[in-house]
């Protein structure tokens, strides 16, 4: 019997991971940087505090719109843990507290090797809520994808682990609802790579008495648009385990090709595609990908618009993939991970930037991928846009970094990367544009320092006709309420634009440039930018 959720569900990147992306794609939480100095350690009231009488908080390793993550050490066991606490601005919000509690309960109840282990949920004397989790070292799947597609012999074992973990969750009536590369962490254990699923904060638990824990109002979107199932995009009221099957199909598609099957210039377009547009073939998206046709067919079925045609369980999906590629190992070897470089940066969710060319040929002749009536989706998506905008700014503020959405495909894993990731500190950046001295007696306007980073580096950044320099770049902007549009340009890549508001505390997200690809027959829509308002 399928478990259901009697409210529409779509949360996510734009609307939140649980706390540090939490959501759109910054370095993952629960990782620790060995050499980093926390500039706020001296003033952070959590540093040096002992929680539950045993967890001594030592340093901050991540933060987001709803929560901060600290490294804490058990004073008796001398073992390090990750502690997530709600920030003061949301501490009094019942839904935020409920989500943190939900995350702890869901992860603890599943007890699976591929789900992050939560060991404690508690409150401080002054009412602050926190959870204690295992401390992970490694990188998020999102960061691994930043280097390009993942070879089949590595992608499938990662997928198998995710399938088994989610099957265990589904058997306990828990649907994740926000599966995405930012919520999958790759770590090492005994020489093998282990995939760990994070953020069950917006998961849905079916209680024995069929009473749902409601953390969102009816009609509110819950989930990440890039990985959202058609039924979520349409705002359907009953959501079950098959939304996770669909999201896994999207993630596997992205692992193998370097780009998700659907993207758009705004949320409306992206939601419409999930609900109506047949998925393209992976070979059409990335001609350099060499996959068995059986794997193509399995991914296409996982992405079926009709959930009755999809694989009904994660176990079915895993079995189908094993049959399509029977010689795959159960676990990828540890060398599939890059040299360990733990980080204290919080993860910022990013959506890919827009390519003016349309998608390649899709499987339009496949009856399993039949398009449904788009008008219910259009009505839901228009309303969702208003909800998304309000929620992103009001709730997540500065900690949502959104990159424009792209249709461009990444090169295959075997194609050399255009260059290594550059140091985002801006140490070797081009000289920033400096202002002229103000007239005598005139107080200069306040300015905010920003770091502009792109991947790959070497992109020229402009504001209007003014060139700021090449990434990585450190510069300063006049503080104000008027939005600024930054344009990133680099030979061989599509120009990307992001809109920022230069306010105190501004953190500009890294912009991931997408390679140009051959123009396809006409059919694309006009360009656009996805505005970001940060720093409040």
Q: What features would you describe in this structure?
A:
The protein has 3 domains: 50-134, Phosphorylase Kinase, domain 1, CATH 3.30.200.20; 139-399, Transferase(Phosphotransferase) domain 1 (Transferase(Phosphotransferase), domain 1); 419-514, Immunoglobulin-like (Sandwich). The chain is globular. The strands form 6 sheets. It has a 6-stranded antiparallel beta sheet with strand order 1-2-3-4-6-5. The chain has a 4-stranded antiparallel beta sheet with strand order 15-14-17-18, with no helix packed on it. It contains 11 helices and 19 strands. The longest helix has 22 residues, at 375-396. The protein starts with 49 loop residues before the first strand and ends in a 24-residue tail after the last strand. It is an alpha+beta fold.
Topology diagram in text:
Blueprint: E1 50-51, E2 55-63, E3 67-74, E4 80-86, H1 88-91, H2 94-110, E5 118-123, E6 129-134, E7 138-140, H3 141-145, H4 152-171, E8 174-175, E9 184-189, E10 192-197, E11 204-205, H5 230-233, H6 242-257, H7 267-276, H8 282-285, H9 293-302, H10 314-324, H11 375-396, E12 447-452, E13 454-455, E14 460-463, E15 466-470, E16 473-478, E17 484-489, E18 496-500, E19 511-512
Parallel strand pairs: 13-19
Antiparallel strand pairs: 1-2, 2-3, 3-4, 4-6, 5-6, 7-9, 8-11, 9-10, 12-16, 14-15, 14-17, 17-18
Helix pairs in contact: 4-6, 4-10, 6-9, 7-11, 9-10
